[in-house]
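ugh ok fine here u go
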Amino acid sequence: MSIHPMTPASSTAAEHPVELVTEYFARAIDALADWREKLAAEINAARADAPLTTDRLDELVEPSALRLFDTVDLPVYGSGFIAALDWLADANSHLAWWQGPERAQLVLAAQSVNKEHIDYSELEWYRVPHETGEPHVAGPYVDYLCSDEYTITVAAPVHINEVFVGAVALDLLIDRVERDLTPRLAAFGGDISIVNGVGRVLLSTSPARATGDTIRGDDLDAFERFACPGMALDVLIAR
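structure:
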């Protein structure tokens, strides 16, 4: 069920920058909210027959992960499921993940002997959904694990019988998001920035601010601040 039932921005003009930004990222949150319920049921059924392994998990995740590339009206770079630590029968961690123009499966063990045992418990895209039980927009950050690019990850927790078993997620590359949103934000006029919960800039219409810069403390006095409902993002508009 969609938690942000809004008309796509492509067919209606947002009246305020915060509406534009909220609608944009809500597309990802809504898609993941629908998928996590379906995946939880599939995982639960699979575990009834035998302990769940990484190979079996990949089989369950792949069709829906690949479908997100085509069904979400966003420039999706990667999608998949991050298993809860120490939950699978044959690995203590696992990313069932597909990415890039070829939509190829990410094989961490082939890249580094240590990555197949990575502890991602403190990474924002895993930690926040785990702790809060809510979807989360994480970033911007350089994704050294998957793309090596400046990335935004949208993730939603998956629970079975109220037990956290992992998170479904999708990646958006910052440069593609900038191409989507910056011209549309600029059309409102003025100096507009999108920041995350700690004041880090996702993108800005101002050439004086780059992705990864921070706007905090007294610097915030120069802006009007508008929260994006349902996500830890704010739109800052210069006074």
